[in-house]
Amino acid sequence: MVRYKWTMLMTMLMIALTTVFLLQGAGRTKASGDLSDPFLDPYALSLAHRHLGPGMESAAEKGVQMQLSWPQGEPEAGVSSQMSLSIKNSNGKPIEKFEIMNEKLLHLIVVSDDLQQFQHIHPEYKGGGVFELPVSFPAGGAYKLYTDFLPAGMNELTRIGEVTVKGETPERPILKPSETLSASVDGMRVTLGFAETLVPQTQTSMTYTFTEEKSGEPVTDLELFLGAVGHAVAIDKSTKQFIHIHPLNWASSGPQAVFGVSFPSSGLYKIWGQFGRNGKTFVVPFVIEV
């Protein structure tokens, strides 16, 4: 029943987003049309963000637990610390099999509680439901660790852990919306835009547009990052709301990366967009208000 409801939800979302993009395309000028992305098709839309969230998880999925440990002792700022995480079912037994999603068995997002530090890393699977990886924290303080994984026979799940890192904790800055949703990155101008005013629990499109900073020409040689044109992560000011967003035009090489997103509540969110070009991965952070 859960999977049926989810299939119906995704079908309705695909139809709605397709309609939005068609209506947007009808009103484009020639100049803006040159920046539009031709790879928005029904198959690409079917790969939209598919995390169910706790409210839609099955009983078996709700029972899945993630446990963090630090075999070499509590982590310290500036020192590589071995991290181990284990994934078990509701009976406390290890989950043995996982499906690959976006080229990896598990995605780990490490973020400081002031949202100043961000890492997207991939622990190695050791078997028996255990993943391991050395992690280096740039500063002391509290961190959240968000894990995304796909147990065989289930939907994609997110579980959250916490750790306090020993060492000097920097002064906490005041989080406020970015003055402009445009940034200079590696000779490019990267601009973030939304299809409409942001309202909680309302699906909308979120588009990154890439142009050459000197010439203004569209960037069309973006490289796939983890099997897609890009990925984005959004976390709210309280670090309680976590959204891992996959692109709709996953196979594009630019000049746009388009995401479908719904923010669960109002407030400030920091968004990190991750993309690839010339053999390097780059991160574009912005703070927005919903």
The H-level CATH homologous superfamily of the largest domain, spelled out, is Macroglobulin (MG2) domain
Tell me the series of helices and strands, N- to C-terminal: HHHHEEEEEEEEEEEEEEEE
If classified by CATH, what would the architecture of the largest domain be? Sandwich
SS summary, helix count: 4
Termini gap:
32 Å
Low-confidence stretches: 1-33, 41-50
Q: What would you report as the Rg, rounded to the nearest angstrom?
A: 19 Å
Question: Secondary-structure map with pairings?
Answer:
Layout: H1 2-26, H2 30-33, H3 42-45, H4 59-62, E1 65-69, E2 80-88, E3 106-112, E4 118-121, E5 124-127, E6 130-136, E7 141-149, E8 157-165, E9 182-185, E10 188-194, E11 204-212, E12 230-236, E13 242-245, E14 256-261, E15 268-277, E16 280-289
Antiparallel strand pairs: 1-2, 2-6, 3-4, 3-7, 5-6, 7-8, 9-10, 10-11, 11-14, 12-13, 12-15, 15-16
Explain the overall architecture.
The protein has helices at 2-26, 30-33, 42-45, 59-62, and strands at residues 65-69, 80-88, 106-112, 118-121, 124-127, 130-136, 141-149, 157-165, 182-185, 188-194, 204-212, 230-236, 242-245, 256-261, 268-277, 280-289. With 290 residues, the chain is mainly beta. It folds into 2 domains: 59-165, Sandwich (Immunoglobulin-like); 182-289, Sandwich (Immunoglobulin-like), CATH 2.60.40. Strand 3 (106-112) and strand 4 form a beta hairpin. The longest helix has 25 residues, at 2-26. The two termini are 32 Å apart. Residues 1-33 and 41-50 have low confidence and may be disordered. This is Secreted protein.
